[in-house]
Known about the structure:
Layout: H1 2-16, H2 18-21, H3 24-37, H4 45-52, E1 56-57, H5 61-65, E2 74-75, E3 79-84, E4 90-97, E5 112-118, E6 121-125, H6 127-133
Antiparallel strand pairs: 1-2, 3-4, 4-5, 5-6
Amino acid sequence: MMLRRVPVVLLAFAAGCSTLMIDSFEQLRETNRKNIAALAIGTPRAQVEKLMGDARAGGKLGDIAFGRVRHLEVKNPQREERVTGPEGAAYDVLFYYTDIKTRDDKITDDELTPLVFRGHELAGIGYGFLAKLAPRYAGLQ
Length: 141
C-alpha cells in the first residue's frame, strides 16, 4: 500500500514545480521576445548572439507533462541565411523563434523574428526590414 502512494506523492510534487508546468517552448519564445526588444541597431553581432544565447526547447519532461511529446527541437538561432541586398551588399540573417501561430509541431517563417546583420553589426530587426533586402519576405511583414 505504501508503494502505491509514492508515485502519487511524486506526481503531486512534480506538478507543483513551476518549471514543469511552463511549456519550454513558451519560455524560449518569451525570452527571445524580451531580448529582441532590448536590442539596438548598430549592436555588434557578438554581443547580440551572447544576449540571445544558444537555448534549446522540446522533448523535455515539462513538454511531456503538457501531453505534447515533441519530436521537434527549437534552438537559438533557429536558422541562418545570407541574403544580398539590392545594392549588392551581403547581409547575414539569424531567425529566432518568437511566436506561435498553430500548435502543429512545425516552425514556420511567420513564427520567427529575423535579426539582420551587415558586416558585424545589427542593421535591422523584423520582416519589414528584411523584405526591403529580400522581396520574397514581403508577405511576412
